[in-house]
């Protein structure tokens, strides 16, 4: 075979530090975001906090946006005049935002707005959570939306149970326990886990952890991926010349790739080290307006209001071209604009997801948890033109105030339980039915799982007894024998 030139035209996503910053901001909860904004002001002199406006309010939207949409607005019509500029974009989209354009662009200077009082009256922003989300909880929740069979789900849960607090798979011995789950492709199951959030989870080594993240960010075949594959030891030693030699790149190119690699997370489980704060500030509020319509609004309460200092804008205009001061100001101005753009994009993306949830889970806002319908991340992602991983980041550790209490956004997503007449019920609504049944059961004759199954069948819900036992355990409801014993011990039932 003779050597020949082969020209190909391909498209690949380039993960710039700015886009990576946007993704990281999207993942933060409200408290961490406020801290990140404070740190950005300290690190970038062109940014400043607008004094006297550090406490935001519930706002229906952004500058120039219409008020928060109602449920009927979302379900009944689309805006015929909505153009390309009105469509939200994925945080992974590549924004083209120049410094010269930003000088006259005041889009990031937020104006104070106040949401008029609703029938709900005064709203308490700080809410107490009963349970923190663990890394295992987050992974199990995502597994419920995969295409794994029940047997494969069991095997996946086993692997998740062996993931340590850093996010690494820690199994005794070598290889995966295929003998424990005959008929299951353990390698495929592990690969599925490694596609979940947080990126890099389920790796067995640091090298594999970073390679997973590079692959998810489209850099597996690019220079960052080649460094990990061909020059990992040199990467650990930070030997730039050796990395350049092994990857056939220039030292300058290696330096750029190292900027990407340093931004990767060597310990994916790090965000779950500490317990989630017992006090949270919701990102969204679902409320009923004066006309009885359900609406969704986004909160800026507790967040500092940032802007670019006007004095630095003037300084940049007056700085001579090809001057060190101008270069410095342009660099800081770009960083500031990207940071502000990322904050705005985070806010808009969360609001868009909230508007979709208002439509898809309309029954929840009328009936409470039992009204939840089956909903998967893919449905919202396809509707909004976003990636599933983006929806996962938006809903994880983000909270909403609803007429039925404070809930994590990801609780609106649930797998389905078949219905007798076709269709399905959400697993969350079925759990709520079970909880209500047990709460209202006769003290003298607590319900068995079989009796609960029959009651659900009468309501048109097809469910196995073992699934009821599983849901009951998730609700911390003991089996019927223990419930009877507890009643006897308290004297509520006779001992004979």
Describe the structure concisely.
The chain is α+β, with helices and mostly antiparallel strands and 496 residues long. Helix content is 44%, strand content 7%.
Proportion of residues in extended strands: 5-15%
Number of helices: 21
Ends: how far apart?
A: 91 Å
Secondary structure category: alpha+beta
How helix-rich are the residues, as a percent range? 40-55%
For the largest sheet, list the strands in their spatial order: 2-6-5-8-9
Number of strands: 11
Computed over alpha carbons, the radius of gyration is: 26 Å
How many structural domains are formed by the residues? 3
For the residues shown, what is the average pLDDT?
A: 77
What does this molecule look like?
- GO terms for molecular function: DNA binding; DNA-binding transcription activator activity; nucleotidyltransferase activity; sigma factor activity.
- The chain contains 21 helices and 11 strands.
- It has 496 residues and is of the alpha+beta class.
- The chain folds into 3 domains: 221 residues, no CATH class; 137 residues, no CATH class; 75 residues, Arc Repressor Mutant, subunit A.
- The strands form 4 sheets. The protein has a 5-stranded mixed sheet, with helices on one face. Strands 1-7 form a two-stranded antiparallel ribbon.
- The C terminus is likely disordered.
- β8 and β9 form a beta hairpin.
List the helices and strands and how they pair.
Layout: H1 17-27, H2 30-43, E1 47-49, E2 58-59, H3 71-76, H4 99-103, E3 127-128, H5 135-143, H6 150-161, H7 186-193, H8 206-216, H9 223-230, H10 232-237, H11 240-247, H12 251-262, E4 279-280, E5 284-288, E6 294-299, E7 306-308, H13 310-318, H14 324-360, H15 364-367, H16 377-384, H17 388-395, E8 399-402, E9 405-408, E10 416-418, E11 424-426, H18 427-439, H19 449-458, H20 465-474, H21 480-489
Parallel strand pairs: 5-8
Antiparallel strand pairs: 1-7, 2-6, 3-4, 5-6, 8-9, 10-11
Helix pairs in contact: 1-14, 5-6, 6-7, 8-9, 11-12, 13-14, 16-17, 19-20
């Amino acid at each position: 075979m003779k050597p020949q030139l082969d020209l190909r035209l391909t498209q690949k996503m380039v993960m710039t530090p700015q886009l990576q910053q946007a993704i990281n901001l999207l993942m933060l909860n409200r408290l961490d975001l406020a801290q990140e904004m404070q740190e950005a002001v300290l690190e970038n002199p062109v940014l400043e906090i607008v004094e006297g406006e550090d406490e935001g309010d519930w706002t229906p939207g952004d500058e120039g946006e219409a008020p928060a949409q109602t449920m009927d607005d979302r379900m009944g019509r689309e805006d015929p005049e909505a153009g390309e500029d009105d469509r939200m974009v994925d945080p992974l989209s590549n924004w083209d935002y120049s410094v010269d354009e930003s000088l006259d662009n005041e889009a990031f200077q937020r104006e104070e707005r106040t949401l008029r009082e609703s029938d709900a009256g005064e709203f308490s922003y700080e809410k107490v959570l009963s349970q923190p989300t663990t890394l295992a909880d987050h992974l199990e929740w995502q597994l419920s939306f995969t295409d794994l069979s029940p047997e494969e789900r069991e095997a996946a849960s086993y692997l998740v149970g062996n993931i340590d607090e850093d996010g690494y798979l820690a199994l005794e011995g070598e290889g995966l326990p295929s003998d424990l789950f005959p008929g299951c492709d353990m390698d495929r199951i592990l690969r599925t886990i490694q596609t979940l959030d947080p990126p890099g989870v389920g790796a067995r080594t640091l090298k594999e952890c970073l390679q997973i993240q590079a692959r998810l960010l489209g850099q597996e075949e690019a220079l960052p991926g080649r460094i990990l594959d061909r020059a990992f030891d040199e990467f650990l030693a930070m030997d730039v010349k050796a990395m350049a030699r092994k990857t056939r790149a220039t030292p300058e190119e290696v330096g750029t790739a190292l900027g990407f690699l340093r931004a990767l997370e060597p310990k994916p489980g790090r965000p779950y080290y500490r317990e989630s704060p017992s006090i949270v500030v919701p990102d969204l509020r679902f409320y009923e307006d004066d006309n009885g319509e359900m609406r969704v609004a986004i909160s800026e309460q507790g967040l500092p209001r940032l802007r670019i200092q006007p004095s630095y804008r003037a300084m940049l205009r007056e700085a001579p071209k090809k001057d060190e001061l101008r270069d410095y100001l342009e660099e800081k101005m770009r960083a500031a604009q990207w940071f502000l753009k990322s904050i705005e994009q985070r806010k808009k993306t969360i609001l868009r997801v909230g508007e979709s949830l208002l439509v898809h889970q309309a029954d929840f806002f009328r009936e409470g948890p039992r009204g939840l319908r089956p909903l998967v991340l893919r449905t919202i992602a396809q509707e909004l033109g976003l990636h599933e991983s983006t929806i996962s980041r938006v809903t994880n550790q983000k909270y909403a105030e609803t007429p039925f209490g404070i809930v994590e956004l990801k609780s609106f997503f649930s797998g389905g339980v078949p219905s007798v007449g076709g269709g399905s019920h959400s697993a969350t609504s079925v759990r709520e039915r079970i909880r209500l049944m047990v709460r209202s059961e006769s003290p003298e004759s607590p319900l068995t799982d079989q009796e609960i199954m029959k009651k659900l069948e009468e309501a048109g819900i097809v469910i196995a007894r073992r699934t009821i036992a599983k849901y009951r355990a998730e609700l911390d409801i003991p089996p019927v024998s223990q419930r009877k014993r507890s009643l006897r011990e308290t004297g509520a039932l006779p001992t004979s």
